[in-house]
Amino acid sequence: MTKALITLNAGSSSLKFAVFSHDGIALDQKVHGKIEGIGTAPHLIAKDMSGRVLTEHRWENGSGLGHEDFFRQLLDWIDEHLGDAELIGAGHRVVHGGAQFYRPVRVTPSLLGALKALIPLAPLHQPHNLAAIEAVAAVRPQLAQVACFDTAFHHDQPPVASRLAIPRALSAEGVKRYGFHGISYEFIARRLAEIDPALAAGKIIVAHLGNGASLCAIKGGRSIDTTMGFTALDGLVMGTRCGSIDPGVLLYLLQHHGMTPAALSHLLYDQSGLLGVSGISSDMRELLGSDNPHAIEAVELFCYHIAREAGALVSSMGGLDGFIFTAGIGENAVEIRRLVCERLAWLDVAVDQDANARHDAIISTAESRVIIRVLPTDEERMIALHTTEALDRSARAPAAAFLPGLDRSRPTNG
Predict the structure, then answer these.
(1) Start-end of H helices in 279-378
(2) Is the same domain home to 370 and 385?
(3) Could you tell me the residue range of the domain that residue 292 belongs to?
(4) Residue 121 to residue 177: CA distance in whole angstroms
(5) Does a structural domain hold residue 157?
(6) Catalytic positions, please?
(7) Would residue 172 count as lying in a domain?
(8) Staple partner for 210: which of 76, 182, 257, 327, CB 3.0–4.6 Å?
(9) How far is Cα 166 from Cα 169, in angstroms, rounded to an integer?
(10) How many CA atoms, within 13 angstroms, populate the side-chain half-sphere of residue 56?
Protein backbone atom coordinates (compact mmCIF):
# COMPACT_ATOMS: atom_id res chain seq x y z
CA MET A 1 0.00 0.00 0.00
CA THR A 2 1.23 3.48 -0.85
CA LYS A 3 1.91 5.64 2.18
CA ALA A 4 1.47 9.38 2.55
CA LEU A 5 2.72 12.21 4.74
CA ILE A 6 1.43 15.68 5.51
CA THR A 7 3.73 18.60 6.28
CA LEU A 8 2.46 21.48 8.40
CA ASN A 9 3.75 25.00 8.94
CA ALA A 10 1.51 26.78 11.44
CA GLY A 11 1.47 30.51 12.06
CA SER A 12 -0.66 32.85 14.12
CA SER A 13 -3.42 33.22 11.52
CA SER A 14 -2.47 30.78 8.77
CA LEU A 15 -1.51 27.17 8.21
CA LYS A 16 0.41 25.94 5.17
CA PHE A 17 0.33 22.25 4.31
CA ALA A 18 1.48 19.79 1.69
CA VAL A 19 0.78 16.11 1.08
CA PHE A 20 3.38 13.67 -0.25
CA SER A 21 3.04 10.06 -1.32
CA HIS A 22 5.92 7.78 -0.31
CA ASP A 23 6.62 4.44 -1.95
CA GLY A 24 9.55 3.62 0.31
CA ILE A 25 12.06 5.18 -2.10
CA ALA A 26 10.85 8.53 -3.41
CA LEU A 27 8.60 11.34 -2.20
CA ASP A 28 6.03 12.68 -4.66
CA GLN A 29 4.16 15.84 -3.71
CA LYS A 30 0.47 15.56 -4.55
CA VAL A 31 -1.22 18.49 -2.83
CA HIS A 32 -0.35 21.89 -1.39
CA GLY A 33 -2.58 24.39 0.29
CA LYS A 34 -3.27 26.67 3.20
CA ILE A 35 -5.83 27.79 5.71
CA GLU A 36 -5.87 31.57 6.06
CA GLY A 37 -7.80 33.90 8.30
CA ILE A 38 -7.65 31.75 11.42
CA GLY A 39 -9.34 33.73 14.18
CA THR A 40 -11.33 35.90 11.76
CA ALA A 41 -12.74 34.38 8.54
CA PRO A 42 -11.08 30.98 7.97
CA HIS A 43 -10.56 29.89 4.38
CA LEU A 44 -9.20 26.51 3.27
CA ILE A 45 -7.91 25.91 -0.24
CA ALA A 46 -6.00 22.90 -1.60
CA LYS A 47 -4.52 22.51 -5.07
CA ASP A 48 -2.74 19.82 -7.03
CA MET A 49 0.72 20.42 -8.46
CA SER A 50 -0.71 21.84 -11.68
CA GLY A 51 -2.53 24.52 -9.70
CA ARG A 52 -6.00 22.98 -10.09
CA VAL A 53 -8.20 23.64 -7.07
CA LEU A 54 -9.13 20.35 -5.42
CA THR A 55 -11.18 21.67 -2.53
CA GLU A 56 -12.11 25.01 -1.04
CA HIS A 57 -14.07 25.81 2.08
CA ARG A 58 -14.97 28.92 4.04
CA TRP A 59 -16.22 28.82 7.60
CA GLU A 60 -19.03 31.26 8.26
CA ASN A 61 -18.88 32.73 11.76
CA GLY A 62 -15.55 30.91 12.17
CA SER A 63 -13.76 33.44 14.37
CA GLY A 64 -14.04 31.17 17.42
CA LEU A 65 -12.79 28.01 15.73
CA GLY A 66 -9.43 26.54 16.73
CA HIS A 67 -6.84 24.31 15.09
CA GLU A 68 -8.72 21.13 16.00
CA ASP A 69 -11.74 22.18 13.96
CA PHE A 70 -9.61 22.84 10.89
CA PHE A 71 -7.47 19.73 11.20
CA ARG A 72 -10.48 17.47 11.58
CA GLN A 73 -11.91 18.63 8.26
CA LEU A 74 -8.53 18.82 6.52
CA LEU A 75 -7.42 15.31 7.53
CA ASP A 76 -10.81 13.82 6.66
CA TRP A 77 -10.57 15.40 3.21
CA ILE A 78 -7.01 14.10 2.78
CA ASP A 79 -8.15 10.55 3.61
CA GLU A 80 -10.84 10.79 0.93
CA HIS A 81 -8.44 12.30 -1.60
CA LEU A 82 -5.75 9.67 -1.00
CA GLY A 83 -8.05 6.76 -1.74
CA ASP A 84 -6.13 3.55 -1.01
CA ALA A 85 -3.05 5.39 0.28
CA GLU A 86 -2.51 5.49 4.04
CA LEU A 87 -1.59 8.67 5.91
CA ILE A 88 1.23 7.54 8.22
CA GLY A 89 2.68 10.74 9.63
CA ALA A 90 2.63 14.50 10.03
CA GLY A 91 5.82 16.55 9.91
CA HIS A 92 5.83 19.97 11.56
CA ARG A 93 8.07 22.98 11.16
CA VAL A 94 9.03 24.00 14.69
CA VAL A 95 10.95 27.24 14.80
CA HIS A 96 13.07 26.60 17.89
CA GLY A 97 14.81 23.43 19.02
CA GLY A 98 17.10 25.13 21.49
CA ALA A 99 20.48 23.55 22.20
CA GLN A 100 19.01 20.10 22.83
CA PHE A 101 17.19 19.27 19.62
CA TYR A 102 19.28 19.37 16.48
CA ARG A 103 17.72 16.73 14.28
CA PRO A 104 14.09 15.79 13.51
CA VAL A 105 12.50 13.75 16.28
CA ARG A 106 9.27 11.84 16.94
CA VAL A 107 6.85 13.85 19.08
CA THR A 108 6.51 12.65 22.67
CA PRO A 109 4.92 14.19 25.75
CA SER A 110 8.32 15.01 27.19
CA LEU A 111 9.39 16.56 23.89
CA LEU A 112 6.35 18.83 23.95
CA GLY A 113 7.19 19.87 27.48
CA ALA A 114 10.75 20.71 26.48
CA LEU A 115 9.60 22.67 23.43
CA LYS A 116 7.09 24.65 25.49
CA ALA A 117 9.97 25.67 27.75
CA LEU A 118 11.54 27.28 24.66
CA ILE A 119 8.55 29.56 23.99
CA PRO A 120 10.33 32.58 25.56
CA LEU A 121 13.03 32.19 22.87
CA ALA A 122 10.47 32.31 20.02
CA PRO A 123 7.27 33.78 21.48
CA LEU A 124 5.72 34.74 18.14
CA HIS A 125 6.25 31.37 16.43
CA GLN A 126 6.69 28.49 18.88
CA PRO A 127 3.20 28.57 20.47
CA HIS A 128 1.51 28.22 17.07
CA ASN A 129 3.83 25.39 15.99
CA LEU A 130 3.05 23.48 19.17
CA ALA A 131 -0.68 24.23 18.99
CA ALA A 132 -0.77 22.47 15.62
CA ILE A 133 0.96 19.40 17.06
CA GLU A 134 -1.50 19.22 19.94
CA ALA A 135 -4.48 19.73 17.62
CA VAL A 136 -3.42 16.89 15.33
CA ALA A 137 -2.95 14.62 18.36
CA ALA A 138 -6.45 15.50 19.54
CA VAL A 139 -8.22 14.65 16.26
CA ARG A 140 -5.90 11.83 15.07
CA PRO A 141 -4.42 10.32 18.24
CA GLN A 142 -2.76 7.40 16.41
CA LEU A 143 -1.05 9.49 13.74
CA ALA A 144 2.71 9.69 14.25
CA GLN A 145 4.11 13.22 14.35
CA VAL A 146 7.63 14.53 13.81
CA ALA A 147 9.09 17.91 14.79
CA CYS A 148 11.60 19.47 12.38
CA PHE A 149 13.55 22.40 13.77
CA ASP A 150 14.42 25.62 11.98
CA THR A 151 17.48 26.04 14.22
CA ALA A 152 18.91 22.55 13.63
CA PHE A 153 21.02 23.25 10.52
CA HIS A 154 23.04 25.82 12.46
CA HIS A 155 23.59 23.62 15.52
CA ASP A 156 27.25 22.76 14.87
CA GLN A 157 28.46 26.22 13.91
CA PRO A 158 31.82 27.18 15.42
CA PRO A 159 31.31 28.41 19.01
CA VAL A 160 32.77 31.79 18.08
CA ALA A 161 29.84 32.27 15.67
CA SER A 162 27.15 31.42 18.21
CA ARG A 163 28.46 32.99 21.42
CA LEU A 164 27.29 36.41 22.60
CA ALA A 165 29.61 38.68 24.59
CA ILE A 166 27.53 38.49 27.78
CA PRO A 167 28.18 36.93 31.20
CA ARG A 168 28.60 33.18 31.04
CA ALA A 169 25.73 32.60 33.45
CA LEU A 170 23.37 33.96 30.78
CA SER A 171 25.04 31.88 28.08
CA ALA A 172 24.45 28.82 30.26
CA GLU A 173 20.73 29.65 30.23
CA GLY A 174 20.75 29.33 26.45
CA VAL A 175 21.18 32.98 25.53
CA LYS A 176 23.23 32.57 22.34
CA ARG A 177 22.96 32.94 18.58
CA TYR A 178 20.86 30.08 17.17
CA GLY A 179 20.06 31.06 13.60
CA PHE A 180 16.83 30.27 11.73
CA HIS A 181 15.53 29.37 8.25
CA GLY A 182 17.56 26.19 8.69
CA ILE A 183 15.07 23.92 6.93
CA SER A 184 15.32 26.10 3.83
CA TYR A 185 19.11 26.29 4.01
CA GLU A 186 19.43 22.54 4.39
CA PHE A 187 17.26 21.99 1.34
CA ILE A 188 19.39 24.39 -0.71
CA ALA A 189 22.61 22.73 0.46
CA ARG A 190 21.31 19.28 -0.48
CA ARG A 191 19.87 20.40 -3.79
CA LEU A 192 23.04 22.25 -4.75
CA ALA A 193 25.06 19.10 -4.02
CA GLU A 194 22.91 17.32 -6.62
CA ILE A 195 23.08 19.91 -9.40
CA ASP A 196 26.50 21.51 -8.80
CA PRO A 197 28.58 19.37 -6.44
CA ALA A 198 31.76 21.39 -7.03
CA LEU A 199 30.10 24.62 -5.92
CA ALA A 200 28.35 22.87 -3.02
CA ALA A 201 31.74 21.73 -1.74
CA GLY A 202 32.97 25.32 -1.69
CA LYS A 203 32.08 28.55 0.12
CA ILE A 204 28.63 29.90 -0.59
CA ILE A 205 26.20 32.45 0.80
CA VAL A 206 22.50 31.62 0.57
CA ALA A 207 20.13 34.58 0.71
CA HIS A 208 16.70 33.49 1.97
CA LEU A 209 14.77 36.63 1.12
CA GLY A 210 11.09 36.75 1.95
CA ASN A 211 8.93 38.57 4.46
CA GLY A 212 11.42 37.11 6.90
CA ALA A 213 14.96 37.35 5.53
CA SER A 214 18.40 36.07 6.44
CA LEU A 215 21.74 35.03 4.98
CA CYS A 216 23.72 31.89 5.72
CA ALA A 217 27.40 31.18 5.09
CA ILE A 218 27.72 27.52 4.09
CA LYS A 219 31.13 25.91 3.69
CA GLY A 220 31.32 22.36 2.41
CA GLY A 221 27.61 21.92 3.05
CA ARG A 222 27.74 23.06 6.70
CA SER A 223 26.47 26.27 8.28
CA ILE A 224 29.40 28.45 9.35
CA ASP A 225 27.60 31.68 10.22
CA THR A 226 24.20 33.31 9.72
CA THR A 227 22.60 36.71 10.18
CA MET A 228 19.74 35.75 12.50
CA GLY A 229 20.84 35.23 16.08
CA PHE A 230 19.06 34.68 19.40
CA THR A 231 15.72 35.41 17.72
CA ALA A 232 14.34 35.74 14.21
CA LEU A 233 14.36 39.52 14.76
CA ASP A 234 18.10 39.84 14.18
CA GLY A 235 20.08 40.51 11.01
CA LEU A 236 18.59 41.85 7.78
CA VAL A 237 15.83 44.39 7.28
CA MET A 238 12.62 42.37 6.81
CA GLY A 239 8.99 42.97 5.90
CA THR A 240 7.92 44.24 9.32
CA ARG A 241 10.98 43.37 11.44
CA CYS A 242 13.79 45.83 12.02
CA GLY A 243 16.75 43.45 11.85
CA SER A 244 19.95 44.32 13.69
CA ILE A 245 19.56 47.36 15.94
CA ASP A 246 21.75 49.08 18.53
CA PRO A 247 20.60 47.82 21.97
CA GLY A 248 20.91 51.41 23.12
CA VAL A 249 17.89 52.25 20.96
CA LEU A 250 15.85 49.75 22.96
CA LEU A 251 17.03 51.23 26.25
CA TYR A 252 16.13 54.69 24.97
CA LEU A 253 12.61 53.57 24.05
CA LEU A 254 12.12 51.91 27.42
CA GLN A 255 13.53 54.76 29.48
CA HIS A 256 12.43 57.86 27.57
CA HIS A 257 9.29 56.73 25.76
CA GLY A 258 8.04 54.57 28.61
CA MET A 259 7.38 51.66 26.31
CA THR A 260 6.36 48.35 27.86
CA PRO A 261 8.04 45.11 26.71
CA ALA A 262 4.84 44.20 24.84
CA ALA A 263 4.74 47.56 23.04
CA LEU A 264 8.43 47.33 22.20
CA SER A 265 7.98 43.83 20.82
CA HIS A 266 5.09 45.00 18.66
CA LEU A 267 7.18 47.89 17.34
CA LEU A 268 10.18 45.75 16.45
CA TYR A 269 8.33 42.75 15.02
CA ASP A 270 5.24 44.26 13.42
CA GLN A 271 5.77 47.97 12.69
CA SER A 272 9.37 48.21 11.52
CA GLY A 273 11.37 46.92 8.56
CA LEU A 274 10.15 47.75 5.05
CA LEU A 275 6.77 48.79 6.42
CA GLY A 276 8.24 51.15 9.00
CA VAL A 277 10.69 52.82 6.64
CA SER A 278 8.34 53.14 3.69
CA GLY A 279 5.18 53.89 5.62
CA ILE A 280 3.42 52.16 2.73
CA SER A 281 3.76 48.40 2.76
CA SER A 282 5.83 45.38 3.80
CA ASP A 283 5.30 43.85 0.35
CA MET A 284 8.41 44.21 -1.80
CA ARG A 285 6.35 44.01 -5.00
CA GLU A 286 4.41 47.10 -4.00
CA LEU A 287 7.54 48.99 -2.98
CA LEU A 288 9.36 48.19 -6.23
CA GLY A 289 6.38 49.50 -8.17
CA SER A 290 6.23 52.78 -6.25
CA ASP A 291 7.99 56.07 -6.99
CA ASN A 292 7.46 57.27 -3.42
CA PRO A 293 10.88 58.33 -2.06
CA HIS A 294 10.23 56.47 1.20
CA ALA A 295 9.54 53.26 -0.70
CA ILE A 296 12.75 53.75 -2.70
CA GLU A 297 14.66 54.30 0.54
CA ALA A 298 13.21 51.12 2.06
CA VAL A 299 14.35 49.07 -0.95
CA GLU A 300 17.80 50.64 -0.81
CA LEU A 301 18.13 49.90 2.91
CA PHE A 302 17.05 46.28 2.32
CA CYS A 303 19.75 45.75 -0.33
CA TYR A 304 22.39 47.71 1.59
CA HIS A 305 22.06 45.45 4.61
CA ILE A 306 22.12 42.28 2.50
CA ALA A 307 25.41 43.35 0.90
CA ARG A 308 26.83 44.59 4.21
CA GLU A 309 26.07 41.34 6.03
CA ALA A 310 27.30 39.30 3.05
CA GLY A 311 30.69 40.96 3.44
CA ALA A 312 30.82 39.82 7.06
CA LEU A 313 29.93 36.25 6.08
CA VAL A 314 32.67 36.22 3.45
CA SER A 315 35.06 37.01 6.29
CA SER A 316 33.61 34.19 8.39
CA MET A 317 34.28 31.68 5.60
CA GLY A 318 37.53 33.18 4.32
CA GLY A 319 36.26 33.61 0.76
CA LEU A 320 33.28 33.20 -1.55
CA ASP A 321 32.62 30.86 -4.48
CA GLY A 322 28.88 31.20 -4.92
CA PHE A 323 25.88 33.34 -4.00
CA ILE A 324 22.42 31.75 -4.04
CA PHE A 325 19.15 33.70 -4.10
CA THR A 326 16.09 31.87 -2.78
CA ALA A 327 12.61 32.33 -1.23
CA GLY A 328 9.87 34.70 -2.44
CA ILE A 329 11.89 37.87 -3.04
CA GLY A 330 15.12 36.08 -3.89
CA GLU A 331 13.48 33.87 -6.50
CA ASN A 332 11.27 36.52 -8.11
CA ALA A 333 12.59 40.08 -7.64
CA VAL A 334 14.90 40.83 -10.56
CA GLU A 335 15.64 44.35 -9.33
CA ILE A 336 16.62 43.22 -5.82
CA ARG A 337 19.06 40.68 -7.23
CA ARG A 338 20.57 43.36 -9.48
CA LEU A 339 20.96 45.90 -6.69
CA VAL A 340 22.50 43.38 -4.30
CA CYS A 341 24.97 42.11 -6.88
CA GLU A 342 26.01 45.66 -7.78
CA ARG A 343 26.92 46.26 -4.14
CA LEU A 344 28.98 43.05 -4.17
CA ALA A 345 31.01 44.01 -7.25
CA TRP A 346 34.11 44.40 -5.05
CA LEU A 347 34.07 40.59 -4.73
CA ASP A 348 34.25 40.30 -8.53
CA VAL A 349 30.55 39.50 -8.64
CA ALA A 350 29.10 40.25 -12.07
CA VAL A 351 25.48 39.64 -12.99
CA ASP A 352 24.23 38.94 -16.52
CA GLN A 353 21.28 41.32 -16.76
CA ASP A 354 19.52 39.33 -19.48
CA ALA A 355 19.86 36.07 -17.58
CA ASN A 356 18.65 37.82 -14.45
CA ALA A 357 15.60 39.20 -16.25
CA ARG A 358 14.79 35.71 -17.57
CA HIS A 359 15.12 34.23 -14.08
CA ASP A 360 17.75 31.78 -15.34
CA ALA A 361 19.19 29.28 -12.89
CA ILE A 362 22.63 30.92 -13.25
CA ILE A 363 22.62 34.70 -13.58
CA SER A 364 26.35 35.47 -13.30
CA THR A 365 28.45 36.35 -16.34
CA ALA A 366 31.14 34.04 -17.64
CA GLU A 367 33.72 36.49 -16.25
CA SER A 368 32.25 36.61 -12.74
CA ARG A 369 34.58 35.04 -10.18
CA VAL A 370 31.55 34.21 -8.04
CA ILE A 371 28.79 31.98 -9.42
CA ILE A 372 25.36 33.51 -8.83
CA ARG A 373 22.39 31.16 -8.81
CA VAL A 374 18.66 31.44 -8.34
CA LEU A 375 17.48 28.26 -6.67
CA PRO A 376 13.92 27.72 -5.42
CA THR A 377 13.68 26.42 -1.88
CA ASP A 378 11.27 23.67 -0.82
CA GLU A 379 10.85 23.54 2.94
CA GLU A 380 7.85 21.21 2.62
CA ARG A 381 9.90 18.55 0.83
CA MET A 382 12.68 18.89 3.38
CA ILE A 383 10.18 18.40 6.22
CA ALA A 384 8.68 15.38 4.44
CA LEU A 385 12.11 13.84 3.96
CA HIS A 386 12.99 14.41 7.60
CA THR A 387 9.66 12.94 8.68
CA THR A 388 10.26 9.68 6.78
CA GLU A 389 13.77 9.46 8.23
CA ALA A 390 12.56 10.06 11.80
CA LEU A 391 9.75 7.52 11.46
CA ASP A 392 12.21 4.96 10.09
CA ARG A 393 14.47 5.52 13.10
CA SER A 394 11.49 5.23 15.42
CA ALA A 395 10.46 1.93 13.80
CA ARG A 396 13.96 0.53 14.36
CA ALA A 397 14.06 1.67 18.00
CA PRO A 398 13.19 -0.69 20.88
CA ALA A 399 9.47 -1.00 21.61
CA ALA A 400 8.14 1.71 23.93
CA ALA A 401 4.86 2.62 25.60
CA PHE A 402 2.74 5.13 23.71
CA LEU A 403 0.09 7.61 24.56
CA PRO A 404 -2.45 8.06 21.77
CA GLY A 405 -0.47 9.82 19.08
CA LEU A 406 2.37 10.69 21.48
CA ASP A 407 5.40 8.55 22.27
CA ARG A 408 6.23 8.35 26.00
CA SER A 409 9.90 7.64 25.38
CA ARG A 410 12.49 10.20 26.42
CA PRO A 411 13.03 12.73 23.61
CA THR A 412 16.36 12.28 21.97
CA ASN A 413 17.98 13.22 18.72
CA GLY A 414 18.48 9.60 17.80
Answers:
(1) 284-288, 293-317, 327-332, 334-343, 353-357
(2) no
(3) 197-374
(4) 11
(5) no
(6) 150
(7) no
(8) 327
(9) 8
(10) 5
